[in-house]
Amino acid sequence: MLDVAIIGGGPAGLTAGLYTTRGGAKEVVMFERGMPGGQITGSSEIENYPGVKEVLSGFDFMQPWQEQCFRFGLKSMQKDVMRISRLKNYFVIHTDKETFEAKSVIVATGGSPKRSGVKGEDQFYGRGISTCATCDGFFYKGEEVAVLGGGDTAIEEALFLSELCKKVTVLHRRDEFRAAPVTLQKAKAKANIEFLTPVLLDEILGDAKGVNGILYKYKDSQEQQKLEVNGLFIFVGYSVNNQILKQEDGSFLCEMTDAGEVKVDLNMNTNVPGLFAAGDIRIQAAKQVVCAAGDGARAALSALAYLEHHM
Questions:
Q1: Which of 132, 152, 202, 291 is catalytic?
Q2: Which one from 69, 135, 165, 254 is the annotated catalytic residue?
Q3: 291 annotated active-site
Q4: The pTM is what?
Q5: Is 165 an annotated catalytic residue?
Q6: DSSP-derived secondary structure letter, 262
Q7: Closest by Cα among 151, 137, 159, 155 to 232
Q8: Is 69 a catalytic residue?
Q9: Cis omega before residue 198 (within 30°)?
């Protein structure tokens, strides 16, 4: 039986593996569909991780993590976990071909921003299209950008970008916004934030250098217009990868929010003893690499304490 099963091989999962093995857990296995690293490996540039002064691609940034995190005995299995269930005082990890038993489980399966499906999105993703203003806003300092979306994240990120960019244009398909009224009021008070509603994004334009404009149209008149921008930030929702927590009867193994995020306390404990969640899957996740790594360390320490006192 495994001491700790870690589901997910991104920054949270790898850090959890490092801290559990270095902390004395003997049988620790990290389950990941592909090579460890997580979705951050698809980022073009990482420059805001403390202590790393070089600007690296996500792939290059995550390379040394693997060597360090496997140094103390962490094992990796490239298996597709279908479900986690609980029997008495232990857990069962159901993969596509076999099952594993574990005394404790750290879920770090993360999530991913929803795509808009607009023409040109795939072509320019990472080359002028971003889903994280905190990560990429600096690259557009003094330039004009657009934000797609009308929820809290979209408006909050527009406010963040307004401190860096010359102009921020917010495009939303409705006149009404889902963002908190106080946040929306702050954004509308900013001189360099413009709102275009109700509009639909038709196409993202660009060249070999990246995005240089967008085509949009008003829903009522269907009149198409072009907006010249150097970057587009898309915030049309976020999907957490929580499928493995869903049980055969359709319920979830632990307590979740309405948005499907795992409810945890400050120590990454769920309401199920021995089950922990870290990174973007958990409630109120900051969706930053450094925060995910911190979650992984905290979950690992909690798992070690659980093994010591309950097993």
A1: 132
A2: 135
A3: no
A4: 0.77
A5: no
A6: B
A7: 137
A8: no
A9: yes
